[in-house]
Amino acid sequence: MVTFFVLTLFFLLGSSASTSLIGDFHALITLKQGFESPEPDLSTWSSSNLTSVCSWVGVKCFKGRVASLDLSDMNLYGSVSSVFSSLDKLVELSLAGNNFIGEIKIGNLSSLRSLNISNNQFYGGLDWDYSSLKDLEVFDAYNNNFTASLPLGISSLKKLRHLDLGGNYFFGEIPESYGNLIALEYLLLMGNDLKGKIPSELGNLTNLKHIRVGVLQCVFEGGIPREFGKLVNLVHMDISKCELDSSIPRELGNLNSLETLYLHTNLLSSSIPKQLGNLTSLVNLDLSNNALTGEVPYELVSLKQLKLLNLFMNQLHGYIPDVVADFPNLETLQLWMNNFTGMIPKNLGQNGNLQDLDLSSNKLTGTIPQNLCASGHLRILILLKNFLFGSIPENLGNCSSLVRVRLGQNYLNGSIPSGFIYLPQLNLVELQDNYLAGTLSENVDATSKPDKLSELNLSNNLLSGNWKLFPSHIPRLEQKHHLSNSIPPEISKTRILNYLNLSRNHFNETIPKSIGSMKSLTIADFSFNDLSGNLPETGQFSFFNASSFAGNPQLCGSLLNNPCNVPTTTKTPKKASGDFKLVFALGLLICFLVFAAAAIIKAKSFKKSSGSSSSWKMTAFKKVEFTVSEVLECMKNGNVIGRGGAGIVYHDKMPSGTEIAVKKLLGFGPNSHDHGFQAEIRTLGNIRHRNIVRLLAFCSNKETNLLVYEYMRNGSLGEALHGKKGSFLGWHLRYKIALEAARGLCYLHHDCSPLIVHRDVKSNNILLNSNFEAHVADFGLAKFLGDGGASQCMSAVAGSYGYIAPEYAYTLRVDEKSDVYSFGVVLLELIHRATSGGRIWGRHRYCTMD
Ligand SMILES: *[C@@H]1O[C@H](CO)[C@@H](O)[C@H](O)[C@H]1NC(C)=O
Ligand SMILES: *[C@@H]1O[C@H](CO)[C@@H](O)[C@H](O)[C@H]1NC(C)=O
Ligand SMILES: *[C@@H]1O[C@H](CO)[C@@H](O)[C@H](O)[C@H]1NC(C)=O
Ligand SMILES: *[C@@H]1O[C@H](CO)[C@@H](O)[C@H](O)[C@H]1NC(C)=O
Ligand SMILES: *[C@@H]1O[C@H](CO)[C@@H](O)[C@H](O)[C@H]1NC(C)=O
Ligand SMILES: *[C@@H]1O[C@H](CO)[C@@H](O)[C@H](O)[C@H]1NC(C)=O
Ligand SMILES: *[C@@H]1O[C@H](CO)[C@@H](O)[C@H](O)[C@H]1NC(C)=O
Ligand SMILES: *[C@@H]1O[C@H](CO)[C@@H](O)[C@H](O)[C@H]1NC(C)=O
Ligand SMILES: *[C@@H]1O[C@H](CO)[C@@H](O)[C@H](O)[C@H]1NC(C)=O
Ligand SMILES: *[C@@H]1O[C@H](CO)[C@@H](O)[C@H](O)[C@H]1NC(C)=O
Ligand SMILES: *[C@@H]1O[C@H](CO)[C@@H](O)[C@H](O)[C@H]1NC(C)=O
Ligand SMILES: *[C@@H]1O[C@H](CO)[C@@H](O)[C@H](O)[C@H]1NC(C)=O
C-alpha cells in the first residue's frame, strides 16, 4: 500500500507522463476507446482509477510498468490505435483471435519479445520500423488480410525465432534476406500468393525446425533449393501445392531430424532420391500427385517410423517393397494410380496399425493379404482395378471398422465373407466385375446393421441364391401381423442405400417388396439375373424403369410388358398393392404421429426450459460472453430473421454487446443427441476460416439443439441479390464475394480435418458481414437433416432444388463435386445480375428435376 502510494506520488510528481504507469494508463484507455462494443471483460478497465491498471484484465505489470498485454480471444471489434509505442516496457503483446480491422503499426517497443496479432482482419502491410523492435522473438500475424509484399525489414531481427505470416495475401517473392534470420526456428508463410523462386539463402537458417511455405496460390518456379540440405534441425517441411518442378534434391537426405516431409501436389519429376532412406526419423512422407518416375528406392526400407506413406498419382513402377508391411506404425499407405507390379506385401496389416489402404489402379497381382484388418482399425480398403485373384479373406467379415471397400475390377473368386456386407460402419461396397460366386449370407449378428451403407455394387459376378434373405435389415412391412401388433422398431432406423447394382449375377426367386420402402434408393439394377415372380410396382419401384429388370425372363409385371398369368395375378398383385397402400398410409400415419408427439414434447420442454435452464448444456468453441439463459432469451418471435429447412434463425444483441444468430434445429429426433452428433458439431465448431461463419457455441437439452453463430450484418447473398436492395451489388463486389465464398468452400473441401462436404451450397447460405465479406454458412448440417429421423418422411434429398447436382438428385451420393456444381449455380446467379432470377432458375429446376 505504502509502496503504491509512493510510486503514485513519484509518477505524479516526477517522470513525464509518456514513460510512466500514467502513460500506460492513458495508452490503454485510448486503446479501449477504439473498440466498438466493449466487452464486460474490459469493464475492469476503469478510467477513473489510475492505480488499478496492473489489476486490469489482460494486463500484467513488472516493476511498476505494464509488461504484458493479452487481449487474445476476447471477441473484440474495432480498430487498434497506434498507442502502443508509449507502452515502452511492453514485453508481450497479444491481440490474437479478435475481429480487429484496419491497419496496424507497431514500433518503438524496444523490450517487445512476443507479438501475436493472428486471427484478425488487419489489412495493409507490415512495413514497420523493425529496428525499433530489435528484441522480437515471436511474431505471429497468421490469418489476417494483409495484402502487400513480404516485409523486408523483418530480416534485421536477429533474435526472431518464430515467424508466422501465413493465411494472408502476401504476394511477390520470399526475400533473400530472410536467410539472415539466423535464430529462426519456425518459418510459416503458407497460404499466401507468393511467386518466384524459393531463395537458396533460406538454407542458411540452420536452426530451422519447421518450415511451411506451400498450400493455396503459391507458384514457385524451379525446385527445392539444394541448400535446404543444410537445415539439419528441420523436423517439419511442407512445400506442397506449389507448382514446384525439377527433381527432389538428394541433399534432403541430410535432414536426419525430419519427421514430416510434404511435397505433394507439385510438378516434381524424375525418381525419388535414394538418399531419402537416410531420413530415419520420418513419420509422414507424402510425395503424391507429382510426376515422379522410376521405382521406389530400396533404401526407403530404413524408414521404419513411417505412419503415412503417400506416393499416389505418380508414374512409379516396380514392386512395392515387402518391408513396407513390417513398418510397425504404418497407418496409411496410398500408392494408387501408378504402375506398380508384383504382389501386395503379404504381411501388410500384421503390424496392427493399418487404417487406410489404397493401392488401386496399378498392375498388382496375387491375392489379398490375410491380415489386413489385424488392427481392427482398418477403415479404407481400396484395391480397385488391379489383377488380384483368389478369394476375399474370410476374416474381413468381422472387420467392423471398415467404411469404404472398393475391390472391383479384379479377378477375385470364392464367396463374399459371411457378415461382410452387414458391417456396421460400411458406407460403400464395390465388388463389381469379379468372379465372386455363392450366395449372400444372411446377417447372423443381429446387433450389426449396415445402417450407413449407401452404395452396394455387386454387378457382374457369379452370385446366386435366394436373395430374399439379403435385405434382412429392411423392416418386413409386408407382414401384416407385425403392423397390427406394434410398429416395427426398425421403422425408425435410417437406411440410406442409394445405389444397388446386382446385375449380371444369378440371383433367383422374387424381388422383395420391402425394397419399395427404401425411400433413398434411387438407383437399382437387377438386370440379367434369374429372378422370377411378380415385380412389385409400389413405393420406390415406381421410380425404376424396365431396364433395371431386363434379362430376367421369368419376371412379370406391367412395367416389363410381360403381364403375369391370370390365375396368380388377379389375386396377388391386387393384394400386394392393397397391402402396400395400407403400409403407406400407416407409414404416413406413423410419421404424422411422430411429428405430433415431437411437437408436443417440444412444446412441453419449452415451457419447462423457460422456467429453468438447468437442463441446458452449452458447449462454447471460443470464449463467449453470454450464458445459456441469455441465448434462450433471444429466441422470441420478434427476433426471427429467417426460417429455412434447417430451422428457425433468431438474432439478438447479448447484454455483453455481442451480436449473435441462433439457429434452432428442427426435425431432430432423440437419436440426434448421440455422441456422433455432438462430436460432429464439435468438429464444425473448431473450424476457423476467414470465409466461414464461425460457430460460437452449441446449446442443447434433451429435445432441442441450438447453434450459436456470429452475426452477419448484411444477411445472405440471396437476399442481397434478389431482395429489395438487390441492384446495389457492383461487379467488383460480386467478384469479391465469389472469390471469398470459393475460398471458404475450398477450405472445407481440402484443408480442414476431417474434410467437410457442405451439401447445401446456395446463395442463401452465403452470408455477408458488415464489410460485405462472404462467409459460407450452414455447412455439414444438411447431412444431419438428411439422416435424422423425422425429416426422412418428407424427403430423402438434402440440399435445395435448383442447386442440386443432377447426379446427386439421382443417386444421393454426395461428394465435394456436388458442392462445386451448386457453387456454379451461385456463380451464374451472381453473373446474371438480375434481381429476379426466376426465369433462369425455373428452367434450371426443370433440368435437374427431370
Ligand atoms: C482503485 O484500485 C485499487 C487497486 O485495484 C483499489 O485498491 C482501490 O480501492 C481502487 N480505488 C477506487 C476509488 O476504486
Ligand atoms: C497466438 O495466439 C493464438 C490465439 O490465442 C494462439 O493459438 C497462437 O498459438 C499464438 N501464437 C504463438 C506463436 O504463440
Ligand atoms: C516512434 O518514435 C518516433 C519518434 O519519437 C515517432 O516519430 C514514431 O512515429 C514512433 N513510431 C511509432 C510506430 O509509434
Ligand atoms: C481486406 O483488404 C482489402 C485490401 O486491403 C480491403 O479492401 C478489404 O476491405 C479488407 N477486408 C476486410 C474484411 O477488412
Ligand atoms: C547464405 O546462403 C547463400 C546462398 O545459399 C550464400 O551465398 C551465403 O554466403 C550464405 N550466407 C551466410 C552468412 O552464410
Ligand atoms: C545417406 O545415404 C547414402 C545412400 O543411400 C549413403 O551412402 C550414406 O552413407 C548415407 N549417409 C548417412 C549420413 O547415413
Ligand atoms: C503405366 O505404364 C504405361 C505403359 O508403360 C503408360 O502408358 C502409363 O502412362 C503408365 N501409367 C502411369 C500412371 O504411370
Ligand atoms: C474376427 O473373428 C475372429 C474369430 O472369431 C477373431 O479372432 C478376430 O479377432 C476377429 N477380428 C476382428 C477384427 O474383430
Ligand atoms: C479361385 O481362383 C484360383 C486361381 O485361379 C483357383 O486356384 C481357386 O480354386 C479358385 N477358387 C474358387 C473357390 O473357385
Ligand atoms: C457399378 O459397377 C458397374 C460395373 O463396373 C459400373 O458400370 C457402375 O458404374 C458401377 N456403379 C457405380 C455407382 O459406381
Ligand atoms: C450395373 O452394372 C452393370 C455392369 O455390370 C452396368 O452395365 C450397369 O450400367 C450398372 N447399372 C447402373 C444403374 O449403374
Ligand atoms: C435359387 O438358388 C439357390 C442357390 O443356388 C437354390 O438352392 C434354389 O433352389 C434356387 N431356387 C429356385 C426356385 O431355383
UniProtKB/TrEMBL annotation:
The chain crosses the membrane at residues 582-601. SMART domains: LRR_TYP (SM00369), S_TKc (SM00220). The lineage of its organism: Eukaryota, Viridiplantae, Streptophyta, Embryophyta, Tracheophyta. Keywords: ATP-binding, Glycoprotein, Kinase, Leucine-rich repeat, Membrane, Nucleotide-binding, Receptor, Repeat, Serine/threonine-protein kinase, Signal, Transferase, Transmembrane, Transmembrane helix. Its EC number is 2.7.11.1. GO terms for biological process: defense response; response to other organism. InterPro entries: Kinase-like_dom_sf, Leu-rich_rpt, Leu-rich_rpt_typical-subtyp, LRR_dom_sf, LRR_N_plant-typ, LRR_R13L4/SHOC2-like, Plant_LRR-RLKs, Prot_kinase_dom. Its main location: membrane. It comes from Actinidia rufa. It is a single-pass type I membrane protein. Residues 1-17 form the signal peptide. Belongs to the protein kinase superfamily. Ser/Thr protein kinase family. GO terms for cellular component: plasma membrane. The keyword Repressor does not apply. Residues 635-850 form the Protein kinase domain. This is non-specific serine/threonine protein kinase.
